[in-house]
Each structure stands twice: as structure tokens, then as C-alpha cells.
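Quick entry between incubations.
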Amino acid sequence: MAELSFENIGISAMAGAVPKQIIKNRDYTAHFDEALVKDIIDKTGVEERRFASEGQTASDLCFAAAEQLFEDNQIDKSEVDILLFVSQTPDYRMPATSVTLQHRLGLSKSTAAFDISLGCSGFVYGISVAYAYANMPGIRKVLLLDGETRSKVYHPKDRKTGFIFGDAGVAAIIEKQEVGHSFFSLNSDGSKSDLIKIDAGGYRNPSNEESIKEKVVDEHGNIRTDEHGYMNGADVFNFVLREIPKNIRQTLSLANTSMEELDFYVFHQANKFMNDYLAKKLKLDSSKVPSTIQKYGNTSSVSIPITIVDQLKGQLHSPKKLLLCGFGVGMSWATAVIPTNQINISDIVEV
Amino acid sequence: MEQKFLNLIKEALEVDSIEVKFEDLLADFDAWDSMARLSLIALLDEQFEVEVADAEFDKTETVKDLFNLVKSRVK
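Done. Structure below.
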């Protein structure tokens, strides 16, 4: 059972970056009629998203966030001993994007750098790895970068995914500090790997002429190629309802705490309907549930940290306790209860 | 349970003005799409604590078929 706990490790600074390009969903009527677009927006809650430009990648967004974080916090780059990059939209199939970022950011060659390939659970997994490294003697700062360009993953003519996803990147510093105990529960169910998936373009089904052909994939006339992502929203929702409340209860029990004792519950921003129902089922106080689904959509692993940076800036100056919960592609899910002393949060950079 | 179930279907399909009957075909409702399934999943969880998979919805033709499936799972 992957239940982890740490003592006196915390997040000290965070920064975020989003592309300048704003996609307004209400104007997104080239492929679908206005009434359908309205229904989709009402249900998903996604009014706007940010789309990276051609050639702009997740690492570019993380780079901008990291530069802002270094500047605002006067970080001595030689103290960054570990660089982690969480993403499923890396720059290249090889080398690892984290290694290219070590050089771009001007970090020491003695920095350990590697990628973590997870989606919506990725930030919670990422900080668990960061906490584990930061816990080791001699390790000073861990730089966690988490970026996604999901806009490039899904096909604009597939209504099941075409209105939901957006792009963003964040940077966070994790280090030793007198903050108390943190708790993580990390989980996986590969039997459901086909609920959210890109079938082709890897090494199981390599890219070929057939895999890049657009085709109608269902009776609703949705169109994509085999190299675009697809999602079975109904079964993802079934999965979330079955697993997430249970996992939150487990993590609260591990942390020996209750929902009432926590200050904020930051969930993966899947879509408004799913998040609202989850909050209702868990009987959460909505004032403790920050949301960015309306302005950034679902940015996969970045949705939890970009929500912290965007919505909790100014609220994390004094000690707080946060619940973080990410769930999705894999299926992979993770919940954390983390105390914070003071997180210095930078303004979001537009690039 | 029958009336509660029919009301739930009406709510998921957002058809306040139309009467939903057991013999109705789900596919005949304009609103029976992937978003209606999300509503239905939430309502079935909330009111009956029952889960229905996407593939099971695909195999369900009439409102009655779905009712029987849900009824067999109510604890």
C-alpha cells in the first residue's frame, strides 16, 4: 500500500504560466451548433481555455514559471539539487524534457533531472517524489515543474474532449522546513487504461499513414485520428465516484484528521459537473473548494497547482492545511494532506 | 421505486414537459447523449447508490431495460 508520510518538508514557493492565446468556448461554433455548445459549456463549466501556440511546449510554460519563481524568491540556482518534470506532453520522445530544462534554466550539472509521465494525478505524485528527495540529508531544494499542452492532444471535432482541455505550466520549490507532517496515498488501476488514452504514436502502435487519418469514431459524428486522445467520460465518472471519496477517507484517517480541520480542498479540475457532484457527495463547504475550471479548463496534472497559484495567492501567508486530490488517466489517483507554513506565490505569467 | 426512477430519467434527460414511460426507447430522446449519461450516473449514485457502466447503457434500449438493471442492483 503506497501510503507515505513525511515530517518537516514543505512547499515554499510556487509560480505559474499560461499561454497568451485565449480560446472562448462560446465562440467555438465552427464544428458544432450554438445550442450544443451552450449545453456543453453549461455542464462542463469551461468558458475559456489557454492554447499554446504552434511550437510552444509544456517545457516553455514551465521555463517561464521557473524563471519568475527564481526572480521573485531570489533563489540561488546552485541550491537546486533535483529537478522533476511532470508531463504527458514532453518536448521529445527522447531525451527527457527535464534534462533539457536543467540546461535552459542554468542549473548545475550535478542536478538530478528526470521526467514523471502521469496525467491528472501527476502533481500529487510529483510532490510525493519531491518530498521524498527533499527529506534526504544534504538535499537542499527540489524544483518541481509540471506542464501540459493538452490542447495538442485532443481533436477539435471530438465534442467529448474538444471543449474541456487547456494548457498551463507551474514551478514549485520543495524543501525542509518546520511545517509538521504530510501524508500521501498513491494508487493505480491499469485494468482501466483504455478509459482515457491515445492509441497510436507510441511503440505499441507506431505512427503510420493510417494512424494520422481523420475518421468518424461514433454515432454522434465525432472525428479524430488514432493519434488523438479519447475519453470515456461516463466510465471515468463511475470510477471517480467509486474510488475518490474512499481514497479521501483513507488519507484523512492516515493523517488522523477530518475535512473540517483542513483549510482548502484542491481537486483536479476535471469538469464542473463532476467536481460539483463530488463536492456534494462529500458534503464539502464550497468556500473551501477553489476552482479554475471556468477560466483555464482541465489542464490535467497542472490543474491542482495552477488553481493554488491562481485562487489561493494571498491566502497562504500563514500556516494552513491543504487536501490535494488528483485522478484520471491510467487510471491513476492520489490524495495528499499537506501542511504549509508560507507559500510565496508569484503572479501568473502569460507567454 | 418506479415513479422515483421515471422522475430521475426526466431530470437526466431534462424533459420536464414530456411524460417518460417505461416502453420509451432511450435513443428516441434528443438529449440522450454522453452528457445525459453523466447526469444519470450522478442521479443513480445519489438516489439508488447504483453504478451503471457506459457499455451497459449502450445495451439498454428501453427505459424499462434500464429500470430492471438498476432494480437488480439496489441493495
